[in-house]
Write a structure and sequence with these properties.
twelve-stranded antiparallel beta barrel, single chain, 7% helix, Porin
C-alpha cells in the first residue's frame, strides 16, 4: 500500500491552490465616470428674420444672416458673420443693407484675448455707399460664471467710407469700445446685449453708436426663436439722412 507523507500532501494542495489562483480571472476594475466629450471645434448659426424699421426707412423686410466660429485646442480662433436685409414698398426697393465681418483671436489666458477684425458694410438708403475698416485690440472677460456673463473690448483701427449722394470718400482713424453681456435665464432661454462706441479720431463730432439686444428661446435642440432690437446712431449723418435707425426683428435661428 502506497503511503503519502503529510508534507507531500500539503505541497500538492498548495500547488493546486496556486494553479486556481493564477487561472481565475482578475476582478474587474471600476473605470469611473466617462469623461465629457470636448466641445465641437466649429460652432455657428443661420437665421431668417422679419424686420420692422423706423428712421430713414419705414417698411417691413426679410433678412438673412449667418455666423460661424472655429476654436480648437490651440489658443487661436477665427470667426465670420454676414447679414443681408432687403425690403420694398409698392414694388419699389427702399431698404438694402449688407454687413460682413471676419475676426481672428489669440487667447493670452482664460479671460484675455488679442484680436484683429475687418468689416465691410453697405446701407445705401441711410447714405452709406460702402464702408471698409479694420482694427486690432484687446478683449477681456469680466464674468465667466452663469447666469451673468460679461466681457469688454477696445480697439484701434482705420476706415474708408464712401457717402451718398455724390460718393464722397473719406479715410479716418478709429477708436472703439465694446461691451457684450449675456444673462442665462434657463437652459432654454437667454438674453444678450451688445454695444459698441466708435470715435472718428479725425473728426470727434463724427462718433457712432451701435446697440443690439435680443431674447432667444429654444424650440428644439437645434432651432430657436429670437426677438431683437437694434439701434445705429451716426452723430453726423450723410446729407438729408436722420441720425438714428432702429430695427425690430423676429427670427428663426438654426444652430449647428
Amino acid at each position: 500500500m502506497l503511503r503519502i507523507s503529510p508534507a507531500v500532501h500539503l505541497n500538492s494542495c498548495r500547488a493546486i491552490l496556486l494553479l486556481f489562483a493564477f487561472a481565475s480571472p482578475a476582478p474587474a476594475q471600476d473605470p469611473g465616470p466617462t469623461p465629457a466629450p470636448p466641445p465641437p471645434a466649429w460652432t455657428g448659426s443661420a437665421q431668417v428674420s422679419f424686420l420692422g424699421t423706423r428712421g430713414n426707412t419705414r417698411t417691413s423686410v426679410l433678412g438673412v444672416g449667418a455666423e460661424a466660429k472655429h476654436k480648437g485646442a490651440s489658443p487661436w480662433s477665427v470667426g465670420a458673420k454676414a447679414a443681408f436685409n432687403r425690403g420694398s414698398t409698392g414694388g419699389d426697393e427702399n431698404l438694402r443693407n449688407l454687413l460682413g465681418v471676419l475676426r481672428a483671436g489669440r487667447a493670452l489666458n482664460e479671460k484675455t484675448e488679442l484680436f484683429v477684425e475687418t468689416a465691410y458694410a453697405e446701407d445705401k438708403y441711410a447714405g452709406i455707399d460702402s464702408r471698409f475698416g479694420g482694427e486690432a485690440g484687446l478683449s477681456r472677460k469680466l464674468s465667466v460664471t452663469e447666469p451673468h456673463l460679461l466681457s469688454i473690448e477696445a480697439g484701434l483701427g482705420g476706415a474708408h467710407e464712401v457717402r451718398l449722394p455724390g460718393k464722397t470718400a473719406r479715410n479716418f482713424a478709429t477708436a472703439r469700445a465694446g461691451l457684450a453681456y449675456k444673462y442665462v435665464i434657463s437652459k432654454n432661454a437667454n438674453f444678450q446685449e451688445h454695444a459698441a462706441f466708435v470715435e472718428n479720431l479725425n473728426d470727434t463730432k463724427d462718433w457712432r453708436l451701435a446697440h443690439i439686444a435680443g431674447l432667444t428661446a429654444s424650440l428644439t435642440a437645434r432651432f430657436a426663436l429670437k426677438l431683437s432690437h437694434s439701434l445705429l446712431h451716426l452723430n453726423t449723418p450723410p446729407t438729408g439722412k436722420k441720425k438714428t435707425d432702429t430695427v425690430i426683428a423676429a427670427a428663426v435661428v438654426a444652430n449647428f
